[in-house]
Sequence to fold (584 residues):
Amino acid sequence: MAAPSPFADRLHDAIRRCGAPLCVGLDPMPERIPALFGDAREDVAAVANFCDAILEAIAGKCAALKPQLGFFEPYGPVGVAVARDATTTARALGLPVILDAKRGDVGSTADGYVRATLGPDPGFEADCVTVNPYLGLDSLEPFFAFAEAHQKGVAVLVRTSNPGAADLQDLPVDGAPLWVRVAEMLAPAMERLARGRDWSDLMIVAGATWPEESRRLRALLPKALFLAPGYGAQGATAADAKAGLVGGLGGVVSASRSILYPPAAAQARTMADWRTAIDAAIEAARAELSAS
Amino acid sequence: MAAPSPFADRLHDAIRRCGAPLCVGLDPMPERIPALFGDAREDVAAVANFCDAILEAIAGKCAALKPQLGFFEPYGPVGVAVARDATTTARALGLPVILDAKRGDVGSTADGYVRATLGPDPGFEADCVTVNPYLGLDSLEPFFAFAEAHQKGVAVLVRTSNPGAADLQDLPVDGAPLWVRVAEMLAPAMERLARGRDWSDLMIVAGATWPEESRRLRALLPKALFLAPGYGAQGATAADAKAGLVGGLGGVVSASRSILYPPAAAQARTMADWRTAIDAAIEAARAELSAS
Fold:
């Protein structure tokens, strides 16, 4: 078997194939999943049906899938199994998977989270995983080491898209906000995971709602891939979202609710109508994000 | 059914019953679980057997159980099910459960993690859950709101026990380290979750390896419960670990490997020998931590 290509290359291939730096966030919200799929408030099978239908609809039309574990775990272990199945299916369809887990722990616990998220069966075998930097570099090292050895990506939270991000991330540290210090701290990992290439397998989460911060982050971490959540339902425009993206290869913009739950889909009475609504939503996002 | 008592009261009852502020960390490490239980590197049933035997050994002899999800998730969804079963069993035995998940996310994702960890079946229904503050107060609010409504605890990472904790947590913000600013940010939540009582259902993670920081944190958050990891295998002494604990009711000290994997247990050839080794380890920790 040929060695896999680096995560950045796999993501770039997917961006070129679909023509837009669009990542679809897989956020199964029980009260928004149409009854066509079953009652997702009661039955995890409805969630599985919904995820399968979404994957079929978006394959080839976006650059990555971002399953959000926080929407699967409330269903218990069977919900985790659905998320893992969606990951396996997406990868089989050629979609790189960025698992949104936001894990962060130390030592052998961090090793466990690496195996659970990036590792092979019974792990998720995702292409990339989101991690939280609050515990420091030694908590990130097991992820970096595994990424380096297995051509995976690691997406570190730097400046998130929520209003409360300012509470800690904007606190001033020697004249610059904390998120700048976090970005500076990641520079060696960026180089290490670039392995001499133009783009690194280090990804950073830089909320699409903060375009000025994204541009500053781009200057600090020129080779890092960006994961920009907040586009669409959270209010960021396509221009905002692309602020740090550099010619379409600098990362992906993530959209969840605007793709999964467009108003027309809520009113669909047949699966064909639902699919038409989803197709329209994904085409609208692709058109906005591919326009230069 | 009578309303449950607040988390702090349940924890205090457990501390008084067993006579020591000892929390046992449930960290199933595949390579350290004795072959008596099966091969934990291959078979999650060995992990379940081990957890059951540990729970039987520690019931009534410690004040809380802290299952570390990072050691269960590598087994996949069935591993998560084992962690949830251990939580259910521990609570049935009268042991409050602090689920070590270190979750942190925003909005409806945070709501999902609340349901998954503190919520009833199919959630874990833990008594308390560890959370990461990097995303700010709006990411913690769903946990605080649920804790307030359901008498649960929330344990926020403030100063962790790992060497790399200094990378972010010690950065200077207007003359004080970041962890002090995080503690200050939590003061309103401490009061809110105290509901006029002496002790709050807000818990903070303050590594046992940093006794001076623990004393400073105690001054900043006088009503908060402390969760002090790092005692035993991570090198903190009992005196270090108890630095912030205030007369035995200010929180719990967590020990994992020193209780689960004492050297004598590794050599045990029978279940009775193994149990003798575990009993000795827990008695040693209780004696150290109950001494004033």
Notes: Chain B touches chain A through 62 residues (CB under 8 Å). The two ends of chain B are 38 Å apart (CA to CA). The first helix of chain B runs from residue 7 to 18. Residues 191 and 252 of chain B are 20 Å apart (CA to CA).
